[in-house]
Amino acid sequence: MSALPPATVPISEVRQRRHEVAKQVAALTFDLGGLTYEMSQRNDFRIDVLVAKAAALKAADAELGELERLLAAAEEGVVGHCRRCQASHSRGAIYCWRCGESLAYAVPPAPAPAPAPAGSAPAPAGPASGPPTLDGVAVTGF
Q1: Can you give the pTM of this predicted structure?
Q2: Cys bridge to 78: 14, 27, 91, 141, which one at CB 3.0-4.6 A?
Q3: Per-residue CA distances from 129 to 9, 25, 42 (Å)
Q4: Do 91 and 66 contact (CB within 8 A), yes or no?
């Protein structure tokens, strides 16, 4: 699999790559189905072969999905790059399509409020506000 084109590549080349990858995904899907059928007819399933073909299909499908998101984002002019592998991603992506790195930026938690002095009334409980959290860590950067 080739890497996604950088943001400086003309949109026509990204469309061409999407067309090529879409044809590849269709061929891989057809091949996986045919292979599974042939194995069932012979009653000889080779799980390792099926898993390898499925992994190739999954990788091509992930690239196709990201190319489609990039094309949609290009209309709005919003894209970014993964900090780990530099793969392009569209706005709203939470994880990198290539390496799985989280694209959210961790925000340190706010310091706990100081305890109220003795004899004062407790603060009323209201709705919590602040950045969204992921596994207890505030995130931002979407």
Answers
A1: 0.52
A2: 91
A3: 41, 44, 61
A4: no
Concatenate the DSSP letters of all residues of 90-136 into one string.
ETT--B-TTT--B-SEEEPPPPPPPPPPTTPPPPPP----SS-EETT
Per-residue pLDDT tens for 79-119?
677 888 888 777 778 888 889 888 887 556 667 677 767 76
Q: Which region holds residue 28: left if phi is over 0, alpha if psi is between -120 and 50, else beta?
A: alpha
What does the alpha-carbon distance between residue 85 and residue 62 come to, in Å, rounded to a whole number? Answer: 15
Query: For residue 139, what are the β-bridge partners?
Result: 106
- Secondary structure (3-state) at 139: strand
DSSP 3-38: PPPPTTS-HHHHHHHHHHHHHHHHHHHHHHHHHHHH
Of the candidates 87, 63, 58, 88, the one whose C-alpha atom is nearest the C-alpha of residue 73 is 88
Are the CB atoms for 111 and 77 separated by under 8 Å?
no
Q: Where are the domains of the chain?
A: 11-103
